[in-house]
Amino acid sequence: MKDAFGTPQSLLILGGTSDIALATARRLIARRTRTVWLAGRPSQALENAATHLRGLGAQTHTITFDALDPDSHEAVLGKVFAEGDIDMVLLAFGVLGDQANDERDPVSAARVAQTNYTGAVSSALVCARALQAQGHGSLVVLSSVAAERARRSNFIYGSSKAGLDTFTQGLGDALHGTGAHVMLVRPGFVRTSMTAGRPESPFATTPEAVAVAIELGLRRRSETVWVPGSLRLVMAVLRHVPRAVFRRLPL
To answer: Vertex 27, ends 167 and 33: CA angle to 5°?
Structure first.
């Protein structure tokens, strides 16, 4: 169960090598989190992440999880919940894709959508049902500011996040009053290994800053968190910019 400060004692990360997820885990372990499950494809990076978190004092386990195999999600994630209650699930997997290549390769574009949206829908529903059965716990979903409006430079990725964003809002409404809490996180450009080498956008942030925002959102039981917070106002304006003008913006 969460302590008086809203810190989960147990944490399940879907996308166990995510820089944002690991920054969040480090922060929560420093507070009171004691058990961490890292779900992801078997790799040395996943094992290294587990070793790192164990060194911080958390009992850490790894479990094989593939976003592109929704048929396996119920069985795989069910094993985690069978081991005991999970106070927080952080859905942190996703791929950026390569916009220029993906426009020419529909199969590659579909893989982005299947990972970021279809895989997320499947795994989130499995976890949501388990949290509801527990009667407590938070599902935290990493969306993106890219979900707010299609941009020429990343509309394939952005569309997949837009679907995830809408789904998460609806799931939060569906679980309202059950004891399970859903929180949507919309970061801007985050400096991670996934974005390395890409031009930075305005309001760029760090995994550590996102982790701080997630922790604060948990304490407040927020439903939506923007990182940085100023993006809420920026996007409120950009959503209403006429399309002909929006096309000419350097976005």
So the answer is: 85
